[in-house]
């Protein structure tokens, strides 16, 4: 069966079918999500206005957490804008925001994002937690090395220090760390149908048998998600496809193979549609359960295609492996002296007072800031990266990195420089700025590093050399 035939069975009204195919190749409106633990929506809209950028809510889904942003203003391309380069927002398709918003983890939660690259949902989960009094920890995992690099770069850009990155086959979590996580997000690798608004290869070469193989991979990952989730924890399963094999089919399979363990939850989102329960007159899943799953269709919601199910684990499984206490992470140290020395340096150099949510981890040459929950993870999982790199070690002290400013810079009280609107854009585009044009605050001239602010936001770090600000900005894209 090819894709045309599949859809002919799925949508039996010819008018609706035409509408669906007409929408396949249509580009979606550009939308963004805010990193709003340091910037409220109101403040962001005001800043965007300064740059003649207009934000609007979708009329189809006004309660989605993302905003449409106009495409017309091309003075500074969106990705190059300082607000983007400094990690105050990221581009995210409207429906792609659904899975993490359904989890919306609370205070102190330990969350596994099993298939996290390139990153959008990880930052959304981490941002929710950073709004809480205890920022917990998000484990961002992916199996592909190349995609893992963009995952790490992006996490640094949005300074979500309550994250750690792992490169583990998703199948292994269930065995390696049973019942560890409060929430597991499985945004599963899929047949890429939902990317057909960008290119049509996915639907052109769609074959039912290939999709069945992918559905089987997703199912194995879902079983691992179930095993690694705590009792009364939640699992969100999502794909960006609309065929039933990868969606309702997998939910039905796990419910029947693990009877009484999982319960499908209602999802309180008004603008989406429910799952389907029949295909070609065959029942895929119980009608009541299908109504608790959600779908976004390209020709109805005018968003990316999405399927999401919210599951709660009600009982433990009968048998688990013991968690293996492994010495995988000998490169990461968190001795008391690391905490003491880093705190002392931050206080003396920039007047930064950290709090009990900040925890410092040292490698041979770098200091990272993360949260104390990392200790539990380092005991069981091999980590590629923890938190955000903030300092390089030198022979007798430390050298600050750009991300120190974006992650902890807002707590700084001395050695601060204020940039104006033009200067902040110039600096984030890699230019050198002259110190005489710039407003200094509480500075000690013997110490050459400065945290750069624009308005009330710390944006980078710089070293003064020959009355110029050495550009230490780390750009992305
Ligand atoms: C749909 S994408 C995830 C998108 C991501 N959640 C985001 O919001 O940016 C699926 C990801 O699953 C990863 N993947 C595929 N098989 C995997 C496995 N066995 N274990 C872990 N990750 C896997 C792929 O490398 C891919 O990055």
Primary descriptors:
477 residues; alpha+beta; Rossmann fold; ten-stranded mixed β-sheet; 26 strands; 30% helix; 23% strand; binds S-adenosylmethionine
Folded structure, characterized:
Helix content is 30%, strand content 23%. Strands 5, 6, 7, 8, 9, 10, 11, 14, 15 and 18 form a ten-stranded mixed sheet that branches. The chain has a six-stranded mixed sheet with strand order 22-26-25-24-21-23. Strands 2-3-1-4 form a four-stranded antiparallel sheet, with helices on one face. The chain has 477 residues and is of the alpha+beta class. Bound molecules: S-adenosylmethionine (SAM). Residues 114-121, 141-144, 147, 169-171, 187, 189 line the site of S-adenosylmethionine (SAM). S-adenosylmethionine binds next to helix 6.
């Amino acid at each position: 069966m090819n894709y045309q035939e599949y859809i002919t069975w799925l949508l039996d009204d010819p008018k609706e079918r035409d509408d669906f195919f007409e929408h396949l190749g249509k580009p979606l409106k550009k939308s963004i999500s805010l990193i709003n633990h340091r910037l409220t929506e109101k403040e962001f809209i005001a800043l965007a206005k300064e740059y003649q950028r207009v934000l609007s809510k979708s009329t189809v889904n006004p309660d989605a957490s993302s905003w449409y942003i106009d495409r017309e203003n091309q003075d500074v391309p969106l990705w190059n804008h300082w607000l983007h380069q400094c990690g105050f927002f990221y581009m995210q398709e409207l429906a792609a925001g659904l899975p993490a918003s359904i989890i919306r983890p609370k205070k102190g939660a330990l969350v596994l994002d099993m298939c996290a690259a390139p990153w959008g949902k990880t930052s959304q989960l981490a941002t929710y937690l950073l709004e809480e009094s205890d920022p917990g920890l998000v484990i961002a995992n992916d199996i592909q090395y190349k995609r893992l690099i963009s995952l790490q770069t992006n996490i640094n850009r949005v300074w979500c220090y309550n994250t750690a990155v792992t490169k583990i086959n998703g199948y292994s979590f269930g065995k390696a760390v049973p019942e560890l996580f409060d929430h597991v997000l499985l945004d599963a690798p899929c047949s890429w149908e939902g990317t057909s608004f960008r290119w049509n290869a996915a639907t052109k070469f769609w074959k039912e048998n290939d999709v069945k193989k992918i559905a089987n991979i997703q199912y194995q990952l879902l079983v691992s998600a179930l095993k690694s989730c705590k009792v009364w924890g939640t699992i969100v399963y999502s794909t960006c496809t609309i065929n039933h094999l990868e969606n309702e089919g997998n939910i039905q399979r796990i419910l029947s193979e693990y009877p009484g363990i999982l319960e499908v939850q209602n999802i309180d989102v008004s603008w989406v549609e429910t799952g389907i329960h029949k295909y070609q007159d065959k029942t895929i899943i119980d009608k009541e359960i299908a109504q608790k799953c959600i779908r976004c269709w390209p020709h109805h919601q005018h968003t990316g295609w999405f399927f999401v199910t919210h599951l709660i684990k009600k009982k433990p499984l009968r048998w688990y492996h013991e968690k293996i206490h492994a010495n995988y992470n000998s490169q990461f140290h968190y001795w008391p002296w690391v905490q003491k020395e880093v705190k002392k340096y931050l206080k003396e150099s920039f007047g930064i007072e950290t709090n009990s949510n900040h925890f410092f981890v040292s490698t041979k040459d770098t200091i990272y800031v993360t949260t104390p929950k990392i200790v539990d993870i380092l005991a069981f999982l091999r980590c590629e990266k923890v938190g955000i790199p903030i300092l390089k070690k030198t022979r007798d002290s430390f050298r600050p990195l750009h991300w120190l400013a974006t992650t902890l810079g807002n707590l700084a009280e001395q050695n601060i420089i204020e940039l104006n609107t033009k200067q902040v854009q110039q600096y984030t585009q890699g230019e050198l700025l002259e110190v005489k044009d710039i407003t200094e605050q509480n500075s000690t001239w013997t110490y050459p590093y400065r945290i750069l602010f624009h308005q009330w936001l710390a944006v980078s770090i710089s070293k003064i050399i020959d009355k110029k600000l050495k550009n230490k900005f780390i750009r992305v894209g």
